[in-house]
Automatic annotation (TrEMBL):
<keyword id="KW-0238">DNA-binding</keyword>
<dbReference type="GO" id="GO:0006310">
    <property type="term" value="P:DNA recombination"/>
</dbReference>
<feature type="domain" description="Phage integrase central">
    <location>
        <begin position="109"/>
        <end position="202"/>
    </location>
</feature>
<feature type="domain" description="Integrase DNA-binding">
    <location>
        <begin position="34"/>
        <end position="100"/>
    </location>
</feature>
<dbReference type="InterPro" id="IPR053876">
    <property type="entry name" value="Phage_int_M"/>
</dbReference>
<dbReference type="InterPro" id="IPR038488">
    <property type="entry name" value="Integrase_DNA-bd_sf"/>
</dbReference>
<comment type="similarity">
    <text>Belongs to the 'phage' integrase family.</text>
</comment>
<dbReference type="InterPro" id="IPR025166">
    <property type="entry name" value="Integrase_DNA_bind_dom"/>
</dbReference>
<dbReference type="InterPro" id="IPR050808">
    <property type="entry name" value="Phage_Integrase"/>
</dbReference>
<dbReference type="InterPro" id="IPR010998">
    <property type="entry name" value="Integrase_recombinase_N"/>
</dbReference>
<dbReference type="InterPro" id="IPR013762">
    <property type="entry name" value="Integrase-like_cat_sf"/>
</dbReference>
<dbReference type="Pfam" id="PF22022">
    <property type="entry name" value="Phage_int_M"/>
</dbReference>
<keyword id="KW-0233">DNA recombination</keyword>
<keyword id="KW-0229">DNA integration</keyword>
<dbReference type="GO" id="GO:0003677">
    <property type="term" value="F:DNA binding"/>
</dbReference>
<dbReference type="InterPro" id="IPR011010">
    <property type="entry name" value="DNA_brk_join_enz"/>
</dbReference>
<protein>
    <submittedName>
        <fullName>Uncharacterized protein</fullName>
    </submittedName>
</protein>
């Protein structure tokens, strides 16, 4: 057995530690030397191969050691940051015994994330409410149970960079939720810098596509719509009603029998992005689809196999199987262009049809004659889309 492992405190190995060599270093005590190293920080590698961080310092001639976590859960930037903070606390007068005391759980990121979720969950809708906390915990990984003061910008950048490269939009959501947790900490009197602004500017984000909601070509819209309707599945029924009404797919996925009255979908505030109830008049084809599925007696009109709403990914998968490189949301822009170009409809009527929350849309929506006008326009839209369909 090498002498340096028998007496690691006496014979540490001094070299620059990097993310590349941490997993290949031999058994021993490896000091974090080099330009970016932190004095007193060591990676301890056992003969069996386990790796953990320790910090060493002398106080009044006595050596004190602090465990800083296993390598598998503690990346190099986090170990450095943690040791720097301990040294600062020692410099400020805290004793080693005080520092080794149990951390206050109210300062843990996990505790504050639960507090942030509890404060916001009443305003969340659908799958977002179910996924907000579980997704954040999953992507935070080993940082989930760390004190929030340890989650500095360098630590989070090192942790999130791989996610940015592989799942960009998910990473954007995670950064947004991290920001909310830090704001919750501030509201509870825990003052820590919010790293979100720096993460949004410094992480290697790819450029966003200019056509974020890519749509089918209007000339090809009838063919695509007819192919969707011909699938005769739950997903195709949802997508067809979404297209014919100009609604958001999330609203139609959640559609419940009690929302349907006299050929109109009355979507409650919790089903709307704007948190305002909205009426969607049903065209003949849309009404036939909705009435058929509602007659089956489920809790939702278009149920999944489990009985709940179908996932948004199922709708998107169907859309892309028929019209690759397009999105479900893109149908709203096709409808907008159709109404504007073919029927010279004003922006207030278009916004009211699409349930936009502008002041002009709300004013137009309040007009008593608007419902009939909207239904007439949507029937023209339906005629354009289904000219060769035989119901």
């Amino acid at each position: 057995m090498p002498l340096r492992w028998v007496y690691p405190e006496v014979y540490p190995v001094y070299m620059a530690l990097t993310n590349r060599n941490l997993t290949t270093l031999p058994a021993g005590l490896h000091a974090d030397s080099g330009v970016h190293g932190v004095r007193g920080l060591y990676l301890k590698v056992s003969p069996a191969g386990s790796r953990s961080w320790i910090g060493r310092t002398k106080i009044e001639g006595k050596t004190h050691k602090f465990g800083l976590g296993p390598l598998r859960e503690t990346p190099l930037p986090l170990a450095r940051d943690r040791w720097v903070r301990i040294r600062q606390r020692l410099f400020d007068g805290e004793t080693p015994a005080q520092i080794r005391g149990k951390s206050d759980e109210t300062h843990l990121f996990s505790y504050l994330a639960h507090a942030a979720y509890a404060a916001r969950s009443a305003r969340m809708k659908g799958s977002k409410k179910d996924q907000w906390l579980t997704s954040l915990e999953s992507h935070m990984g080993a940082l989930w149970h760390r004190p929030i003061s340890e989650l500095t910008t360098p630590v989070l950048m090192d942790h999130l960079a791989p996610l940015v490269r592989t799942k960009t939009e998910t990473a954007r959501k995670v950064v947004g939720r991290i920001s909310i947790v830090f704001k919750q900490a501030d509201a509870l009197g825990i003052t820590v810098p919010n790293p979100a602004p720096a993460l949004r500017s410094a992480l290697p984000w790819p450029k966003r596509s200019k056509d974020h909601h890519a749509a089918v070509d209007r000339a090809d819209a009838p063919r695509v719509f007819q192919d969707i309707l011909a699938k005769n599945t739950t997903a195709s029924a949802i997508l067809a009603v979404t297209i014919l009404t100009g609604a958001r797919a999330g609203t139609i996925r959640q559609l419940r029998p009690e929302w349907i009255k006299d050929g109109v979908i009355i979507a409650p505030p919790e089903a709307m992005k704007s948190d305002v109830a909205h009426h969607y008049p049903l065209t003949p084809v849309a009404r036939a689809i909705v009435d058929h599925w509602a007659s089956m007696g489920g809790d939702v009109v278009f149920p999944s196999r489990s009985g709940g709403p179908l996932s948004d990914m199922a709708i998107l998968k169907l859309q892309k199987s028929i019209a690759p490189d397009t999105t479900v949301h893109g149908w709203r822009s096709v409808l907008t262009d159709y109404l504007r170009d073919e029927h010279h409809v004003g922006e207030d009527i278009i916004d009211a049809t699409l349930a936009h929350s502008s002041r002009a849309a709300r004013a137009a929506y309040a007009r008593s004659t608007l419902s009939e006008r909207r239904l007439l326009l949507l029937c023209k839209w339906e005629e354009f889309l289904q000219s060769t369909i035989n119901l």
